[in-house]
TrEMBL record:
PANTHER family linked: FAD-DEPENDENT OXIDOREDUCTASE (PTHR43031), PYRIDINE NUCLEOTIDE-DISULPHIDE OXIDOREDUCTASE (PTHR43031:SF1)
All copies of domain Rhodanese, residue ranges: 16-104
Ranges of Basic and acidic residues composition bias in the record: 21-35
Signal sequence residues: none
Gene3D superfamilies from the UniProt entry: Rhodanese-like domain (3.40.250.10)
Region annotated Disordered, chain positions: 1-42, 99-128
Coiled-coil blocks: none
SUPFAM superfamilies, per database record: Rhodanese/Cell cycle control phosphatase
Protein name: Rhodanese-like domain-containing protein
Organism of this sequence: Halogeometricum luteum
Native organism taxonomy: Archaea, Methanobacteriati, Methanobacteriota, Stenosarchaea group, Halobacteria
InterPro entries: GlpE_sulfurtransferase (IPR050229), Rhodanese-like_dom (IPR001763), Rhodanese-like_dom_sf (IPR036873)
Length: 128
């Protein structure tokens, strides 16, 4: 692992041509409630079996709810031989510190006929 990266810098990088690969290590259910646009979900428990998926990447940012577990995920990815040349970072503060937009999966049950979100989307559940 190279270091931690501030959420604002991640957001800035995502707008550029050389956007990092953002790996969200939460469960699929929490990922679907809200995630950084363009990120991919690789639950922490699956990471050891999927670390080879990151071979050849230039820059990888790991994300979790509070920025603790993503440090461990970044270390795991960074220790893989196929990512030896990659810059691997954990997003400092996790999604709790993220101020940018979030994407959410929308099931047919949660959307109205016009595709707009319904009251089923509202409530106290945080995206993490």
């Amino acid at each position: 692992m190279d270091d931690e990266i501030d959420p604002a810098e991640v957001e800035s990088l995502l707008d550029g041509a050389d956007a990092p690969r953002v790996v969200d290590i939460r469960s699929p259910e929490t990922f679907d409630r809200g995630h950084i646009p363009g990120s991919e979900n690789v639950p922490f428990a699956e990471l050891p079996d999927r670390v080879a998926d990151f071979e050849g990447e230039e820059r990888i940012v790991t994300v979790c709810p509070h920025g603790k577990a993503s440090v461990q995920a970044a270390r795991l990815i960074g220790s893989y031989e196929g990512t030896a040349d990659a810059r691997v970072e954990s997003m400092r503060g996790g999604l709790e510190a993220w101020e940018g937009p979030l994407d959410a999966a929308e099931s047919d049950d949660e959307a109205g006929a016009d595709g707009e979100a319904t009251s089923a989307d509202e409530g106290p559940d945080a995206p993490f």
